[in-house]
Each structure stands twice: as C-alpha cells, then as structure tokens.
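I have been asked to look over a protein record a colleague put together. What it holds is a sequence and that sequence's fold in token form. Please read both lines and tell me whether the tokens look consistent with the sequence. I do not need a full report, just your reasoning and any doubts. This is what I was given:
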Amino acid sequence: MAVVLTARDLTRHYEVSRGLFKGHALVRALNGVSFELEAGKTLAVVGESGCGKSTLARALTLIEEPSSGSLKIAGQEVAGADKAQRKQLR
C-alpha cells in the first residue's frame, strides 16, 4: 500500500520562563519520533500523561511546526508550506 504519512525524527521543543531572574528552560515535548502510515491503516498513539501525544497530534495536523525533523503527507514535505498549502494538505 502507498505511504500517506511519513514522520522522520520529529522533535518539538518549547522555551519556557523559569522566573523573572532565572532565564528560560527548554521543554522537550517530542524527541525523535519516526513512523510511516500506509493508506487504509490506523495509527494508535498511547502513553502516559505529558509524554507528547497532543504535541504529536498538533504537528501531524499542521497546527504547529516541529522544531526539527521531516513530515511528509502523500510524499510532499510540509516544512515551509504556506497557509494555503497547509489547508490543502489537511
């Protein structure tokens, strides 16, 4: 079957404030997620609270861009896609 979704080494990091004088910290919400999804197949994402399931969903639905890695939908790389292209890919 044809591959409809490919994720390679997806990461998503957020910079959060540690307080007024303590600077910022880096939260690693996703770290190196990779998989392929074929047409007609189902993908289940399971894990503990706070493990990155929702962050992965936001990356896959193009709500947020990953910090790094590659995401392809129907063979088309989505990095740098403009608003109209993202709408079409969704």
